[in-house]
Design goal:
heterotrimer, A alpha+beta, B alpha+beta, C alpha+beta, B: alpha+beta, Uridine Diphospho-n-acetylenolpyruvylglucosamine Reductase, domain 3, Enolase-like, domain 1, 3 domains, 5-stranded antiparallel beta sheet, 4-stranded antiparallel beta sheet, 14 strands, 30% helix, C: alpha+beta, Aldehyde Oxidoreductase, domain 4, 4-stranded mixed beta sheet, 31% helix, 25% strand
């Protein structure tokens, strides 16, 4: 950081129709300025690197990414933000109404930027077709909706604006005979499409301080000492906390509470929190973080789950010397007998990778101690019930003196189930007596929060020539990373569902969650089931090919029916497997035939229910398909 | 995070050059800022503090473009979006709309300059291969004894390696100058794991013009990016194809040569294979773009052979 | 010899369990039929974008007899709302939807009792919908606003509470036997892809997704969940990869960690199948996670159909696909030579 005092910028501009004259800091981006100085929080910082589009605003009529625009560039310009589309008290625009009608907003975090992109698309070309609309939305990421209803909304708005469709299409459907089975429009959509809904990172409180976190650069190291004195003495710093500040039982997690809220004695993964600074502003807090001196002694680390299971591998947690977080076994029938009966035995290994939740809202939260001495944390937590339990023990307060309020969640998918940062916020609020806010950067979120368990699966399946499965041996090893989080539950669900919705008379399933010094793996939509069933459904096709069976056929031969006994020996009631197979087969006009390289012979390809392959250039494509250049 | 003590927005080239000449060590020039802001973040440069930034976007001498004698002078402030929205530019530079539509997204195209992209000299820069194919030069200004003086340099000479250019202290790039190829067909290929916001690993650009009377190649321009530390103009391949009537075999043969030029450190085999198909596709798409017949593709060679 | 770009199709089946695994799950809710014929619901609901707030408003509206837009839902606050626990395990529709239904029925029971007395009819003749309440087979009818007013003037506030339980048992530690869920759902997806044999790029052009959701409270909401799940599945199948080297990530931001954009999205065709759950008041089950399970294998199976290479390690990047094509071609040449 510089010794010089930065020279403020003097700006004059018009924003949402209002003329303004303001000062700004030279380093501010337009995004920072409109959010922090003008309290217009509709534009978001989903990534800060120009990749996600949540920061999109109009400057002199052009849609730009405000996280990539130094605020000086806004001098003398006309700026329009999401708040300006309607004007205060104004009606939602047709684009916004269309988003409401089609169900185009889910978590809502990408929505202000998306509405701006849609608005820009139709301003630039009121006749844009679906290919051009997709192209013009190409700079905006949505993680929740799969974009489909967003496209529908933009096309609907286009048609209403051009007069091709009546504005009545934007209105709600009638009640019909029942509200069950009714496409009631989302209650929270208006607040999202207008940018008025505030998420934790948009919230401010009087006297609020800002937190920044020191994170480990090492995957595995002992912490010999932490010297926070220089940081604490920096003007503007209110406090620095480390694990020494934790008054109660320092451990959180889901099945095993093996994770301290800040590293205690050692760090176990790159990005683990070690200390947190609370200061007047983010810049000061960040500078103070750089002044914290930590003495590390790096020690041997293990980065592969199978290696971690070997004797002599570095131990991640003393309580688990074999590095196994959890082993889930399932046994049914007689495996050896089952394979002996098989006409065909097929073996294959599968691998799935670690995946990032990538919710558009990076983690954020505010904590404060209220007038009744209740330690309160406001954050987009997916499980405030559980978090309150854990925090009460960690800060040693009665449970009704701890309060968790869920702020609107800008996407979760399991990634906001863990109490990764709320403990630090609570401690800092307790230590300073002030509200404290922490907003993660995208990089901080990626590097330090949980991922989907990567998995390695060894599959062995025995079948009769008629396609019936006689036996399955399923072994799955998952890298659980440095802390337990939801690993036990993920392994359990993966195991229970592993062999798929099929009758398997003889089976042995073993699923292992293993500690390593990698980024912790945690809850992520499907909780292990997509990894295990990825293997099963790939395997079924491999077996089908060897037996000359159509893929629907082999599944029908083996599928569960009403009253089936599952792999865990539960008797089911009604089983709809046959119905969904039939429905999918019919809907896609499936061309029956054995698994194999049949693509070139199929008769069911290229229907109206598919899209054309994307060839960029919709907006300037020449007329007629023949002249159209296919840009790869 | 990027922080700085001063943010200058000079309103003349003379002011910009004076500021730049006297700038404290570490000062950076800023065009669209679309490279520098993502760069100053964790995982790349991390937190960066600059004494000053000099923003060129309000310098009028860098705006707009002029056309003369088969060459166009694109001011350094010309942004990528203009190659899509400006009909005259689309007509004069037939490969640039395809290059531009592959560049980032609409919002970033409104902000990112072609000149800035070239000066960055990333091996993955999309703008450089087309400029090579168009015999691109940079016009560079500096102060000499208080007066503005210019020099021009071919882009092939300007780019020395990844992130390394011939730009001297005190110099500012003021324009990109290149051929206009009105009436040519143009194309641009890029590999991506997805269709938008793609950082290319390999890209190929082609422009072609056929003789009206006999359909032979009057002129063909080919360039590749992402396969070596600097982008390449495929002069040998161009020479091989000029004056010929393009057959299927000729295109395939032409595509084989550049594969040997793949020098990139990472993912070498992949790029080598892709380059072959790309050069074929680039030529064919350029032919299609100018309305010429494309040789029979029934027996197109793929990676399978 | 092949065309440069070839298409293919693949399918995958799936199943999933509803609510928390191998344990007893529970959720509680409060309901009040309020002035103006509106409704108030308070429960520990965690809206993360899946649409649960709207669904609860529909359930409450249906059970109370008011309009969904007249339902107010309290904030999720450990100091203000009863426990309904987390958003996860595809449990909210099942656990919270049903507990809200029970709470509303409890509130309605109070209202119906007062109104029945006021009208001098049996309470079980009373029905309500969309802001009106009446006694079946009679002329007795009034607005919900009036009914609430009468109830309150009689000294009764129509409040209710409900708690819903889902019974799962733990698994035996040796053979894993047990009944982890009381409700299961099933699904099938089909994928149509185009593979570029020059670059190895794969585009997904169509997905057909048939899912049993028990009962679709809001069909458009179900579609939205399926569409979102499919695209996440597509991302994992083709482009997303959180990479570590000695514990350090190489994918710090979205420039390197590639997410699907609007240009990567297939046409998604959904079919909702309803196999009602017999163990719950509403009969609905769930869709949030099931939507994501079959997508990646359907895409891999489609790639096989198109070009005869099986990718067994995700993601199927262009490099992996091309390398697999090269390997297949080399093996073919070897065979031909032998």
């Amino acid at each position: 950081m510089s010794e010089q005092t930065p020279t403020d910028l003097q700006l004059e501009f018009q924003i949402n129709g209002r003329n303004m004259k303001r000062r700004a800091k030279p380093h501010q981006r337009l995004l920072d300025f409109i959010r922090d100085d003008l309290a217009l929080t509709g534009a978001k910082e989903g990534c800060g690197a120009g990749e996600c589009g949540t920061c999109s605003v109009f400057v002199d009529g052009k849609l730009v990414k405000s996280c990539l625009m130094p605020v000086a560039k806004a001098n003398g310009t006309k700026i329009e933000t999401i708040e300006g589309l309607t004007g205060w008290g104004g009606d939602l625009t047709p684009v916004q109404k269309a988003f409401h009608k089609t169900g185009a907003s889910q978590c809502g975090y990408c929505i202000p930027g998306m509405v701006m992109a849609a608005t820009s698309a139709l301003r630039e070309n009121p006749k844009a077709d679906i290919e051009e609309i997709k192209e013009r939305l190409g700079g905006n990421i949505c993680r929740c909706t799969g974009y489909t209803k967003i496209f529908e909304a933009v096309e609907m708005a286009r048609d209403v604006l051009s007069g091709e469709a009546s504005a009545t299409v934007l209105e709600a459907d009638g009640p019909g005979k029942s509200y069950i089975g009714n496409n009631v429009r989302r209650l929270d959509a208006p607040s999202k499409v207008s940018g008025r809904l505030r998420y934790a990172g948009d919230m401010v409180m009087p006297g609020m301080l800002h937190m920044q976190v020191l994170r480990s650069p090492h995957a595995h190291a002992l912490i010999k000492s932490i010297d926070t004195s220089a940081a604490e003495n920096l003007p503007g710093v209110a406090c620095v906390i480390t694990s020494d500040d934790v008054p109660g039982e320092d451990g959180f997690g889901v099945f095993v509470h093996d994770q301290p809220i800040m590293a205690r004695g050692r760090v176990r993964y790159v990005g683990e929190a070690i200390a947190a600074v609370t200061a007047d502003d983010v810049l000061t807090a960040a500078h103070a973080v750089s002044l914290i001196k930590v003495e590390y002694e790096p020690v041997a680390a293990v980065f592969d789950a199978e290696e971690a299971m070997q004797n002599g591998a570095p131990v991640v947690h003393d309580y688990a010397p074999d590095n196994i977080v959890k082993h889930i076994p399932i046994r049914k029938g007689d495996l050896e007998q089952g394979f002996a009966e098989a006409d065909l035995v097929v073996e294959q290994t599968y691998e799935t990778q670690a995946v990032e939740h990538a919710y558009l809202e990076p983690e954020a939260g505010i904590a404060y101690v209220d007038h009744d001495d209740v330690v309160t944390v406001v954050s987009p937590s997916q499980n405030i019930t559980h978090h309150r339990h854990m925090l009460a023990k960690i800060i040693d307060r009665p449970i009704n003196k701890v309060r968790f309020i869920m702020s609107p969640v800008g996407g979760g998918f399991g990634g906001k189930e863990d109490m990764i940062y709320q403990g630090m916020l609570a401690l800092a609020a307790m230590k300073t007596g002030a509200p404290v806010r922490l907003v993660y950067t995208r990089e901080e979120s990626i590097i330090s929060t949980a991922k989907r368990h990567p998995a390695r699966i060894t599959y062995k399946m025995g079948l009769k020539n008629d396609g019936r499965i006689t036996a399955v041996s399923f072994r799955m090893i998952c890298d659980g990373g440095a802390y337990g989080l939801s690993t036990e539950g993920v392994m359990r669900k993966a195991a229970i569902l592993s062999c798929g919705p099929y009758n398997v008379p003889n089976l042995e399933i073993d699923v292992y969650g293993v500690y390593t010094h990698n980024t912790p793996s945690g809850a992520f939509r499907t909780f292990g089931a997509m990894q295990s069933q990825f293997a099963t459904e790939s395997h079924m096709d491999i077996c089908a090919e060897k037996l000359g069976l159509d893929p629907f056929e082999i599944r029908r031969i083996n599928m569960m029916h009403d009253g089936a006994v599952t792999h865990t020996q539960q008797t089911l009631g009604s089983v709809s497997m046959g119905r969904v197979l039939d429905a999918a087969e019919k809907a896609c006009r499936w061309d029956t035939g054995p698994v194999g390289m049949r693509g070139q012979e199929r008769s069911d390809l290229g229907g109206d229910d598919t899209r054309p392959p994307c060839t960029l250039g919709a907006r300037f494509r020449k007329t007629g398909d023949d002249d159209r250049q296919e840009v790869a | 995070m990027l922080t700085c003590d001063q943010y200058h927005m000079p309103t003349s080239l003379a002011d910009a050059l004076a500021l730049w000449q006297d700038a404290p060590e570490g000062t950076r020039l800023v065009a669209g800022a679309t490279d520098i802001l993502p760069w100053a973040r964790e995982g790349r440069a991390g937190n960066v503090h600059l004494p000053a930034m000099i923003d060129l976007s309000r310098v009028p001498e860098l705006d707009g473009y002029t056309v003369e004698d088969g060459r166009i002078r694109l001011g350094a402030n010309v942004v990528y979006q203009q190659f899509l929205t400006d009909e005259k530019l689309r007509a004069l530079l037939p490969c640039m709309p395809y290059c531009s539509i592959w560049f980032a997204d609409d919002q970033i195209r409104e902000q990112a300059t072609l000149a800035g992209n070239i000066v960055n000299a990333s091996p993955a820069a999309d703008g450089t291969p087309p400029m090579l194919a168009l015999n691109g030069e940079l016009e560079i200004a500096r102060l000499e004894d208080g007066d503005i003086s210019h020099r021009t340099i071919a882009i092939t000479d300007f780019i020395k390696g990844p992130g390394s250019t011939d730009l001297q202290p005190g110099e500012i790039v003021t324009a990109v100058i290149c051929d206009t190829l009105e009436g040519y067909g143009g194309s641009f290929q890029k590999v991506g794991q997805r269709r938008s916001l793609v950082i290319s690993s390999v890209c190929a650009v082609a422009c072609v013009k056929l003789n009206e009377d006999d359909g032979t190649v009057a002129d063909i321009r080919l360039a590749l990016g992402g396969i070596s530390p600097v982008p390449l103009r495929l002069t040998k391949t161009e020479q091989m194809l000029t004056g010929k009537r393009l057959t299927r075999e000729m295109i395939v043969e032409a595509a084989r040569q550049p594969a040997d030029l793949v020098a990139s450190r990472t993912r070498r085999e992949y790029r080598r294979v892709v380059v072959r198909g790309f050069v074929e596709a680039a030529i064919e798409d350029a032919l299609a773009d100018c309305g010429a017949a494309v040789p029979n593709t029934d027996t197109r060679e793929t990676a399978n052979v | 010899m092949m065309e440069r770009k070839v298409r293919g199709r693949g399918m995958a089946a799936s199943w999933y369990g509803i609510a928390r695994t191998a344990t007893i799950d529970r959720a509680g809710a409060w309901a009040e039929i309020d002035d103006g014929g509106t409704g108030k619901i308070v429960t520990g609901v965690t809206e993360i974008g899946e649409g649960i707030l709207t669904l609860l408003a529909q359930v409450a509206a249906e059970e109370m007899g008011v309009k969904p837009e007249d339902i107010t839902i309290g904030d999720n606050d450990t100091a203000r709302s009863p426990e309904a626990a987390h958003a996860g395990a595809t449990r909210q529709t099942y656990m919270i939807g049903n507990s809200v239904a029970l709470a509303c029925r409890d509130a309605r029971a109070k209202l119906d009792k007062e109104l029945a007395d006021h009208w001098d009819v049996d309470a079980d003749t009373i029905e309500a919908f969309d802001g009106e309440i009446w006694s079946k087979d009679s002329n007795l009818k009034m607005s919900m606003e009036e009914a609430v007013d009468i109830c309150k003037k009689r000294g009764v506030v129509p409040v209710g509470s409900g708690s819903f339980t889902a019974h799962g048992t733990g698994l035996d530690p040796v053979d894993g036997s047990g009944s982890p869920w009381q409700a299961y759902v099933f699904g099938t997806q089909v994928a149509e892809v185009e593979v570029d044999t020059v670059t190895g790029e794969v585009q997904v052009l169509g997905i057909w997704a048939a899912h049993d959701v028990g009962r679709a409270i809001n069909p458009r909401g179900v579609e939205g969940q399926i569409e979102g799940g499919v695209v996440q599945g597509l991302g994992q199948a083709l482009m997303e990869d959180y990479q570590l080297e000695d514990g350090h990530t190489k994918t710090h931001g979205f420039a390197k960690y590639i997410l699907p954009t609007s240009l990567d999205i297939p046409e998604i065709n959904t079919v909702i199948v309803e196999d009602r759950d017999p163990k719950s008041p509403l009969g609905a089950k769930g869709i949030g996670e099931p939507a994501l399970v079959p997508t990646a294998p359907a895409i891999m199976n489609a790639i096989y159909d198109a070009v005869g290479v099986r990718i067994t390690s995700l993601p199927a990047t262009p490099e992996k696909v091309l390398a697999a094509l090269e390997a297949k071609s080399a093996a073919g040449q070897l065979e031909a030579a032998e």
